[in-house]
Amino acid sequence: MIDLRRLTLEQIRAFVAVAEHQSFTNAARSRMRTQTALTRQIRSMEDALGERLLKRSRGHVEGLTDAGQRLLPFALKILATVDDAWTNLQRPSVSGSIRVGIMDDIDVGWLNELVSRFKASHPDCDVRAISDFSARLERRLENGEVDIALIKQLVQADAVPSAGVLRREALVWAAGPGFRPDPEQLLPLVVFHEGCAYRRHLLESLEDEGIRSQVVYEGQSYANVLAAVRAGFGITALAESQVEGGGLLRLQRLGEVELAELGMVEIVLRQTAGRSNAALKAFARAIEHHVPEGAASTVSGFPPSVSQFIGRPAPGGQSLAP
Prior knowledge:
By secondary structure, the chain is an alpha/beta fold. It is about 40% helix and about 25% strand. The strands form 3 sheets. Strands 3, 4, 5, 6, 9, 10, 11, 12 and 13 form a 9-stranded mixed sheet that branches. The protein has a two-stranded antiparallel sheet with strand order 1-2. Helix 5 (about 110-120) links the parallel strand 3 and strand 4. The model is unreliable at about 295-320 (pLDDT under 50). It holds the Pfam family LysR_substrate.
């Protein structure tokens, strides 16, 4: 029988990170630890339990063992319970109104869950949410229509992180597993509606490379865009974690043409100037503490591959021949 009392929180976080990313390298990067340190934590955890938790092959993670699959839901519950305890202990009861802006163009189910949990912990707070694209949320902030919002913005790879940044990762090209471009046709693109920074950046990058393209699908939400790319409508640009968590392939080349690097995307917490109260400060701290280690997270704070672990390595860079 697995005795969770013999584990440390750091070991549990390491195990969940590896399960999430299905890669020691990516998990170490997300935890801001060295791969050696993360590997040592997992081995210590396995030694303490007397069970192997991961299926390994030549240093690669191929999936969870039976013991790992049994442990994962308990590990997730433990981390959620610790987060709840932190919420209740660190934040006294506050009151006030909060209007929260939630992005439509990435999967932020975890933020919806956070809003729900915050309202339960602070019943005297009036919390209301509105979803929109990042660009429109910025205008809503300027106009005082929302008090606080999470937005995404594109930056150069060598740029200094912006004020209020919660997460930063590469923006990459992506396609569904079965997608094959036709060299005789315009390159099909899946994009968000006007207002998404990804859309403009993607189109300008292809134009600069001399790649002829056409938009074949416009989506209003991350879920719709992801579904269209999975179905093979065309290629798109997404944050690296969204590609891995969404079951897509990362593209680096199209036949003989090397695709340009797209820079970085930041998830940034913004607040309306001159608007501050105890409720807003408490909610901002809640976001900073609970933001997950992947931008493609679900309500549980982890991508679907964790709760439905299918034992495959995270997709790496791919080249699609026409």
